[in-house]
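FAQ
Q: What does a multi-component entry look like?
A: The components come first, one per line:
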Amino acid sequence: MTIVDPVGEKIVVDPNVVNITINDKPVLARKGEFIIAAADRTDDFIPRFCYHPRMSSVGMCRQCLVEVETPRGPMMVVSCMTPVAEGQIVRTATDTVKKAQEGVLELLLANHPLDCPVCDKGGECPLQDQAFSHGPGESRFIEEKRHYEKPIAISEIVYLDRERCILCDRCTRFADEVAGDPLISFTSRGNDTQVLTFPDEPFSSYFSGNTVQICPVGALTAKPYRFKARPWDLDQTESTCTSCSVGCRIVVQSSRDELVRYQGVDIDPVNWGWLCDRGRYNFESVNSTERLTTPLIKDGSELATTSWSVALESAARLIRLALVNGSDSVAILGGARGTNEDAFAWALLADQLGISQRDAQLGDGLTPEIFNLPQATIDETCAASTIILLSPDLKEELPVLYLRIRDAAQKRKSRIVEFSSRDSGLTPYAWRSIGFEPGQQAQVVRQTLDTPEMSEQLRRGDVVVVVGRANLAENESLTLHALAELLHTVPNAKILPVLRRGNVRGAVAAGLTPQKNSGDAIDILTKAATGKVECLILLGADPFSDVADSTLVERAFAQIKNVISIDTFVNRSNRNADVVLPAAAFGEKNGTTTNLEGRVSNVTQQITPRGTSRPDWIIATELGLSLGADIGVSSLDELHQKMISCVAEFSSCADVSAIQSDGVLMVHETPVTISRSPIVSIDRNSYNYRLVVSRTMYDKAQSTVASQSLSGIITEAAIYVHPLDLARIGVVEGTSVRVGIDGTNIVIPVNANNGVHRGTAWLPYNHTGVDIRPLLNIASDIVDVRIEVIK
Amino acid sequence: MSRLSDSNVAVAKEIIARYPRQKSALIPLLHLAQEQTGYISREAMVHLGELVGVTSAEVYGTATFYEMFRFEPIGKYLVNICGTMSCALMGSEKLMHHAEKRLGVKAGGTTADGMFTLAHAECQAACTEAPCLQVNYRFRLRVTTADLDNLIDDLKTGKLSDEIPVHGVLSKVRQHIAPDREVGAVAPELVNESPVWLNGKAAL
Amino acid sequence: MSVTYAHAPGFVAGDRPKIVTSRFEFADSYTLERYLATDGYKGLRAALSRPANEIHDDVKNATVLGRGGAGFPAGTKWGLTPQQVWPRYLVVNGDESEPGTYKDRLLMERDPHQLIEGCLIASYAAGLSQCFLYIRGEMALAQERVATALNEAYAAGYIGKNILGSNFSIDIILHWGAGAYVVGEETALIESLEGNRGMPRLKPPFFPAANGLYGQPTIVNNVETLANLPWLMCNGVAAYTAVGTKTSPGTRMVAVSGHVKRPGVFEIINGTTTFRDLIFGEEFCGGIKDDNKLKAFVPGGGSAPWFTPDQLDLPFEASQVGPAGSMLGSGAVMVMDETTDIPAAALTLTHFYAHESCGKCTPCREGGTWLERILRRIVDGSGTDADLQQLLEVGAMICPGDFPHAANEKLGLKAVPFPYKMTTICFVGPSAFAPVHSALTLFRSEFEARVTKRVTIPVTAVGVSS
Ligand SMILES: Cc1cc2nc3c(=O)[nH]c(=O)nc-3n(C[C@H](O)[C@H](O)[C@H](O)COP(=O)(O)O)c2cc1C
Ligand code: SF4
Ligand code: FES
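Then the predicted structure of the entire assembly, as tokens:
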């Protein structure tokens, strides 16, 4: 852009802006961008298939040909790979260009089956659309078309129809370049080129659904959507995925009041259009016939359906009864699976009733104090020169954050320094990956940061620490000590907290966090185990599967008199509850949610709630009325406004249109610091294996189990050790062994895994089959187990 | 088992070490696997993927691009008759018909005894010596039908076994670099200086 | 004039200056012993005794043209590498597979040390850190000869650490392909060398000199190009430019095949030797086989548009062959006499390029096969007259322009308009069209004789319903 300086009449040229003309109209372009991207800001659409703005250009389909003036006359170039240049003259609709574009389209259609009426993509197909807008109008290809076996399943979820494939390299490029899972590839050559997996090896990528979304034809389809709907009878709304705390922007689509599909929306600060498969396909659980549709009330030893008024009255009575013995005999667990407004309504109700025992984190997070350390956004993290990981495996827990950080390491030259007790999805991309035995992290961090090499790296620029509870067999304090060491050496580092469950950040800010020095979820359960909690309110929480220490949960539930559960399904924790109130699920309610970086964006209602289920906030309001504790709101909007004015963190959230697109960052409180503590190392008997317990993408989470396309992917529980340790144990893979600690034993198959460090054993949490939780004891800092061969 | 044998793994490692990036060794290693088994088995591809650090799908993608790799067993002798321009002008079609009759298989087929696989080939860079053919990539030039008959007889009787190794063996000579002579491959990101001899002075 | 057949099959020495084929007459030309006895590695010694930049200047001043097809001067190409970016690589293109081409294989089989010496000189001059010698997969003997030569040369101290005791060190790594013509294209060659499918990359941004192997500056040179360097170093720029013309100095190897009396590979003087000399000259092919009439010839490898006797007097000089409507390409002349079945000849070439398409570009992948299918139908006798126009229309999807209507007579020449505009990344796509286009433009009557007028068949006749 040229700017005339009014005083000196000097012309200031922004070096990042270039002037070009497209079809004789001036266009401002960014230096280094491709012609097609600049043209996308004008009315002149250039047809394309292989080009995707979030992936490297390959210039493969040849559909985007345009003419550029050169000293030797007009030259045909692909606009998806030709950068803009000052003074460039581009023409997108000359006779030659039209002829070339029509030619390419005719050639693409030559071998493409004419099965649009039965193709899932029909109606939203770029090939179909561009054949109309830029095609020749007829095909002169009278030869026999290419034939392949009709759709073949290339994974549990994705089907591939090679006859429809136009070989644009989008799926294969995505798998390799974006997901880092090059499990599909072009095979053969020329006219025989096909996309395939390695024979009998599935495309088992956590991100496979993205290939379906970006396929420009109907070659890749996904089981959950196949033949479900046609584009013209889809209704849709933009929303935010709350399957995990990354908070990817999505479009929620429904047909006949059923959710049928989510598609990723490209927003710069978060997901760039990508989604993980769990987030993309677990909408099936919303449609599940197992959903709770009416309130339930305990009738003898069974739960029986009842009316809302009866249920609310009973719940109110139980709470009132418990409150007689003091406000500490009531506690609220959960709230991180709902909206900010849901959490805020419940916090208001708890305030009114004086209930200070509340916790949205279920003993598997870190103290909310870390939210008051200087916070980094995802973008800041990915722009940092050093990204320190002291976190769970992001590929498993926060999949799209994994994509972003992987991209930063691969393309943006960020360096990853990883501290972990087990290889993670990011280990291959780490500049340095430093292993530690659980319990030794603070010491290892201190030693590592002291090395000259590391000091030099840390001085190179911004440092962000991605921090979270990596190991559920470990006390939270161990991670905090290590974090304190990090922040002591790198005081300017910012942190990005890794959170379990979608809306921990919002729930905590809204007030579902321990008040007035009362304890966290674990303290609440510990107190309950001694009979001090009479009434427990579960807000979408299922302690029996969420809380690692199952013995503690069992002891607590044995003592708690009354349980009131607000949930979407019956689960182990509410099966014996006194009152169960059916809650509206994702897609059935409006509101806002907050992701791990504190970004507030909206979630929207697309279908009517199943049965008589209601949003949590309405339940809170009505329960309040029954209890004579009016929280003083009568609409979601009022509630939202009240939240913005009462909660300092949400005071930035008044801009409705921002909340409906990229979201708004919440306001952070005055930063705190955390202090170091003396380093103690925890020694152990060398015949023991120190446990690493962590979550994987597909586990028995309700939303996964209740989604039929995903439930089959959950694997059986097993214990994993390093191959050399397996040899030491002396059994072959798959053999059941006895894993024990202090008289508690489980019998579980053992497998070898290269990513498990020697001397440690990895147990994925919450898989099918054997329950591993009896081994987990929250009271001890770490867990050492013996692995014994069963004679 | 058609993973690479231990001795071939040793060869493979030597080859891999010559490249700044491991994956570069993939095509030579596929040849090595084909040399061992006569074709590229599924297990071999998995093994090569492990050796150079890529997925089996990537190995498969690369391997299937190239014509010389076979994914199931073929004849001991692969007879490739060139059919491109110069050879076609000089009568390669007649030669192919003769070969089909003589071997009793169509182009692309393998004889029942597993001795011969007959195939059409593209230009073999012997155009002035048309028509030409290759048996396991060893040339026969200006081939007449009588030459072809003799060749097949000789191969059957084992007369040519010294000159023509069985299918899979390409080069009978391997490159060998003595460690004290080898400069060594370095990953490109570890090099950022100009070579020492570019200092404006003579090297000798 | 005496004609001697040397030991190299197909090679015809003749009484001409020899720059790259001087040792071909010896039966043991490929051994280190013979090489050293015939001035071997003298050029390297000469080069190492001077600063690298001077050697680079020599190659520039001698205008050593690339012999791989494009004819770009090697010295200039080396100079295109960006300043101060290291490491840089040399990739030797020994993938010779262009139909009609037969020279690099001879050079590798007959004189591997000369090629090695050329690689060393180039690496020294351009400051390259590693050299990869990529040989076509199907050339078993060339691989063996080059491997043996490399082993000998390493052992003798010509390759590796501190070559000849100097501070110049480089490895030459033998690498070979596995059967894919397109890998001869330099960016595909690089992909292949990286262990990938050999699919060409788009230039720009992937000009190898700036962004090649592993994203580093990379020089890709043809075998013959590099084989020129030892002689140049021994004899000097003046001696080199004294042969040939100013724009095309030196010699070049040409294979003449097809319907000629004595097909063979010749080292000819660049720029002056004409096609007539080559095809009819006594010291070359000695005329058309069986004294038939010449019908047409392909002047520069299978990708080149065809010439007819009209163009016989053009010299082997790019600046004249280009405007006449074709290219010199890789030094391969294929001769067709009056007995040639033109549509069938075109089919062999179109089949070749369709089969060898890497599959990346839609027009090449789909269009090449489509062309082949139509052409095969015509050759088999089941084509219709509409197919002739269809061939041109499909061709125009690969090479857009006004070909169907191009009045080549207007150019005063019986030739097709060339070079083509193209919708593809590399020349494989257009190459599938070039033979069809040439054949159809120059010999349309042969096609017309093969096709039937389209007949409308009444629906009932094909038994749909009655
Ligand atoms: C389709 C295609 C095939 C090619 N095949 C070869 C080949 O087999 N050998 C070769 O040396 N160059 C070949 N080339 C040319 C190379 O791309 C490149 O220009 C050449 O190797 C550069 O070497 P030079 O400058 O020494 O000629 C081919 C080019 C194209 C487009
Ligand atoms: S023109 Fe053909 S061979 Fe060349 S890159 Fe395109 S598809 Fe591949
Ligand atoms: S969109 Fe540019 S070549 Fe495909």
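Q: Is there any commentary attached?
A: Sometimes. For this entry: Chain B has two domains: 6-71+171-181, 77-157.
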